[in-house]
């Protein structure tokens, strides 16, 4: 007795999986675009804050605010089953870039 293997259903399954993978990657690309726009918007607000700090001679570094942002991220991580360490590291990068931009703005205005 010769046994045949039905490869049609397997091929359809692979095609379905590949289609779903393409859809999910497209969704991920859209989310990445939004994420990058949100990061850019956050940096732009930080630039406005730097201008205000420069104008009113407010120190750039605000440890209390940094603690608040980190705590909010940690609480969000715990509430949404994400890694608090990951979000802390992410915010360290975001805050570091915000400080770099603020320094550039404050230093640039201070020389004029």
From TrEMBL:
Record keyword Coiled coil present: yes
A biological process term (GO) from this entry: chorismate metabolic process
Coiled-coil positions: 14-41
Record-annotated Chorismate mutase domain positions: 15-106
Keyword Coiled coil annotated: yes
Molecular-function GO term, any one: chorismate mutase activity
SMART domains with a match to the protein in the record: CM_2 (SM00830)
SUPFAM superfamilies reported in the protein's UniProt record: Chorismate mutase II
Keywords assigned by UniProt, alphabetized: Coiled coil
Protein's name according to its UniProt entry: Chorismate mutase
């Amino acid at each position: 007795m010769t046994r045949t293997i039905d490869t049609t259903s397997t091929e359809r399954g692979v095609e379905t999986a590949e289609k779903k993978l393409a859809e999910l990657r497209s969704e991920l690309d859209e989310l990445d675009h939004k994420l990058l726009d949100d990061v850019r918007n956050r940096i732009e607000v930080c630039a406005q804050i730097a201008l205000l700090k420069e104008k009113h001679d407010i120190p750039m570094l605000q440890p209390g605010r940094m603690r608040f942002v980190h705590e909010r991220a940690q609480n969000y991580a715990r509430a949404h089953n994400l890694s608090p360490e990951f979000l802390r590291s992410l915010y360290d990068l975001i805050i570091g870039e915000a400080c770099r931009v603020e320094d550039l703005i404050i230093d640039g205005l201070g020389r004029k």
